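Bug #2210: token dump truncated for PCI domain-containing protein?
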Amino acid sequence: MMDLYVPELKTLDCFSKHEHRADELRKRVAEHNMRVIAKSYTRVPVTSLIRLMDTTAEEIEAYVSKLVTEKMIYARYDRPAGIVSFQKKKEANEVLDKWVSDIDKLMGLVEKTTHLIDLENNQAAIRT
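Reproduced locally. Full output below:
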């Protein structure tokens, strides 16, 4: 996709005098796109990344590797399966803490609902 804009970019002074700037812009745009994809998806097939970023599998691997080593994103590249995973595995304590929190919220809702039902029944008994 960047190839569509390179001829137009080269007409600008900042790119015509400095050839490496177009390559640097392409890299920066690809890194930005990879960060956006990492925030938006948990798992993406490499074929989809190739289509989304209009690049090759080798460049995808290079961008993912660079961003992971710079700690800009978290990713795991499963080369045989052809999938990039952007979601960290949660530790058992994190999963249990979240489960306990969710159960507490659920019990709070059940208690509130029970209270409202009892209140409604009491008001109905008074009316009759």
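Output looks complete on our side. The CA atoms of residues 1 and 95 lie 41 Å apart. Marking as cannot-reproduce; reopen if the truncation happens again.
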